[in-house]
Amino acid sequence: MKKRVKIVLLLLSTSGYAWGCTLSGPSAQLSVIIPPLTVQRDLPIGTVIWQQTVNAPLLELAGECGDESETRANLVGNDSGILSGRNPVYNTGVPGIGYAVATGPEFSDGWPAAKDKTASVNTLSLRLVVTGTVSSGVLDAGEYARRLIDGQTAQQLMVQTSVPLTRLACELNDSRDRVVPLGAVLRTGFTGPGSTQGEQVFQLGLTCDAGTQVNIQFDGEADNSGTPGVLALLNHGESGIASGIGVQLLYHQTPIALGERLPLETAPAGVRTYPFTARYYQTQPKVTSGDANAVATFNLTYQ
User: Fold this and answer.
1) Angle CA(253)–CA(259)–CA(265) in degrees, nearest 5?
2) Could you tell me the pTM of the whole model?
3) Distance of alpha carbon 233 from alpha carbon 224, whole angstroms
4) Cβ atoms < 10 Å from Cβ of 297
5) Please, are residues 254 and 216 in contact by the beta-carbon 8 Å criterion?
6) According to the UniProt entry, where is the signal peptide (predicted)?
7) Which of 59, 129, 142, 55 is nearest to 98 (CA)?
8) Mean pLDDT by 10 residues, the chain (303 residues)
9) In the 8-state DSSP scheme, what is residue 136?
C-alpha cells in the first residue's frame, strides 16, 4: 500500500510580521561651507582636494532598524565609476571634480550604513575628489546628499554657498619641438668613460598661474651603460653611427633620471624659464667616429 505524503508550502510575507524602521524624532539639515579652491591640473584620479566632517545629531528611530535597505542616502549627480575609500564618487557640475559622502571621518564606511551603525552614526563627511582632467568652474550650492529612513528625510547634507574652483597650470611659450645642436666634436677629445664634450644649454619658457606645481619628465631610449640621464644614439650599432658615447641631459648640472617625474618649483604668476643642459657623454672605453644624434620627449605636468 502506497503512502502519500502531502507537503504544504506556507509562504509568509516577512514584512507583515516585522516592525518597520521609522523616524520618531526631528530631521536635521547639516551644512558645510567650502572655501574657494585652487587645483593643480594634472592631479591623479582619486586625489582628495578638500574634506570636512560635520557632527550630526543622533537619529531617533522606532521599530526594527537593522536592515540597511531601510536607511540609505540619495546622492545628487551621477556615479563617476570610481571609489574614494569604499565610497562611490559622484560627479559635480565641474569637469574632473566629484564628491563622496561617508558616515564617519575616515571614509572606511559609507552609506548605506552598516547594520550595527544604523542609529549610532553621529558624523557625516563630505570630500571632493579628482575624477579626471580638471577644469575651472563653480561648484553649485545646494543639497548633496539626503538620508532616508523608511522613505522619510532624516538628514540633508547641504553646501551653503557656491564655490569658485580654479585650475592651475602653465602654458609653454615656445615651440613644443626643440633642436639642441651639440656640434661636431673630436673623437680624441674623449679621455675615458665619464668624459664629456659639446655641452649646450637649452631653456623651456612657461607662463604660469601663481601656485602651479611644475613638473617635467624626459623619456627616451636609455644608453645600455645605465648612466643616469644618458640617451642612446639614434640607430646605434649601425654603420656610420658613432659608438662609445651617448647624450646626457641635466638640470642645474644634475643628471636627469629618464622616465621619472622631476619637480621644478611651485611657480609664481608670470613667465618662468627653466635651463637644461645636453652634452655628449663617453660610456665605453673606446669611442668611434660617426653620426651622434639622440631624441627625447618631455612632458610637463602640474600636480
Assistant:
1) 55
2) 0.68
3) 11
4) 10
5) no
6) 1-20
7) 129
8) 38 38 74 93 93 79 54 69 88 94 58 39 83 94 82 83 94 88 95 97 94 96 95 96 97 96 96 96 97 95 90
9) -
In the structure grid, which three cell numbers stand for residue 267, read together?
611657480
The answer to whether 176 touches 258, Cβ cutoff 8 Å, is no
**And the C-alpha cell for 181?**
645642436
Contact between residue 241 and residue 235 where contact means Cβ atoms under 8 Å apart: yes
In the numeric block, the cell 651603460 is attached to 225
* Burial category of 167 from C-beta neighbours within 10 Å (exposed 0-12, middle 13-18, buried 19 and up): buried
DSSP letter (8 states) at residue 244: S
| Residue pointed to by grid coordinates 639614434 | 234
Provide CATH 2.60.40.3310 ranges for the chain.
20-168
Q: Which fold has domain 20-168?
A: Immunoglobulin-like (2.60.40)
Q: Which three cell numbers stand for residue 25?
A: 524624532
> What is the second-level CATH architecture of the domain 170-302?
Sandwich (2.60)
Domain with CATH 2.60.40.1090 in the chain: 170-302
Burial code of 122-144, b = ≥16 C-beta within 10 A, e = fewer?
A: eebbbbbbbbeebebbebeeeeb
Residue type, 152: Q
Query: What are the distances in angstroms from CA 171 to CA 24, 132, 134, 209?
Result: 58, 20, 16, 9
